[in-house]
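Write out the 3D structure for:
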Amino acid sequence: MRIIVDAMGGDNAPESAVWGGALAAKEYGEEVLLVGKPEVVANVLKEKGLSDVKGITIMPANDLVDMHDDPATVLRHKPDSSMAVAFKLLKAGEGDALVSAGNTGALLTGATLYGGRIKGIRRGALAPVMPCANGQVMLCDAGANTECTAEMLLQFAFLASLYAEKINGVIKPRVGLVNNGTEDTKGDPLRKEAYALLKKAGDEGRLNFVGNVEGSMVPLGACDVAVCDGFTGNVQLKTIEGVMRRML
């Protein structure tokens, strides 16, 4: 597999991105394309003692996408940014996957424009896999779409469930709808409509829907896939991050 890495994207770039990409090449034998300013990437590899690792190729990009850039236009306005070049390489078939910790909005825009959507899927979503009490839970959406329709939440459930089963090896992933209570009457109009769609899909055997789950139940392993709109998911994710940092 050839993995394209946006070496300049993220709060801790380029060091973390370059270091992580190089370690992946060293430990797993994957081909890694590090996209960024050549001299900067080379210096990080030298500092980490990873300059001689086989399978690493530095792809030049002399600009970068900033966290404050406009997600909708930045890839067009910064064609030589590491993220834009990375997406062009992916579209050209130079790699099998792309990894970036950069501007989330720009990443989603690039994935949509360069990678395209699955037929019938209206929006892409962010689906981080988090540790929980009995293994892992996938949170979908975690910030890509702050305003959603019930149909979008249903699609997120299908996307995440399929990923959890085919990629993470979870048999019949349990899908829960993040809500302010477990009762089927709970929630605002969006959650109530989404619940009805998810339950119908569950009754038809298309999903393993286990009902509503409260925010506190997600890290306790109540489901394998936690479905929510991007606003709710992002708050859930960052709350868990904050609690973990406080405990460390």
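The mean pLDDT is 95.
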